[in-house]
Write a structure and sequence with these properties.
Blueprint (H helix, E strand, L loop, with lengths): L5 E3 L2 E3 L4 H6 L6 E6 L2 E6 L8 H8 L2 H7 L5 H6 L3
Antiparallel strand pairs: 1-2, 3-4
Length: about 80
């Protein structure tokens, strides 16, 4: 399918046919990703924490997590039941 890029205010966009949106189960909000010079449009998952594990993995290495395993705090020592 071919589409034309249109000027929309200070931005640009394309019109996506309703049949395509239905086929992809896209209702209102989407996620945009650029990968290998391609724009990927996905339906946004209902779970707001769907990508937390992936983002967490990017923040910390296995070595960082190993260093944190022995860190204690007041809550762990006094309030939490293991």
């Amino acid at each position: 399918m071919e589409a034309r890029i249109r000027k929309i205010g200070n931005s640009k966009g394309i019109l996506i046919p309703d049949a395509v949106l239905k086929q992809c189960d896209i209702k209102e909000n989407v996620l945009l990703e650029v990968k290998d010079s391609a724009i990927i449009i996905r339906s946004k998952p209902l779970n707001p924490r769907y990508d937390w594990e992936e983002k967490f993995d990017k923040l910390f290495s296995e070595e960082d997590l190993e260093d944190l395993k022995d860190v204690k705090n007041k809550f762990d020592n006094e309030e939490w039941t293991w």
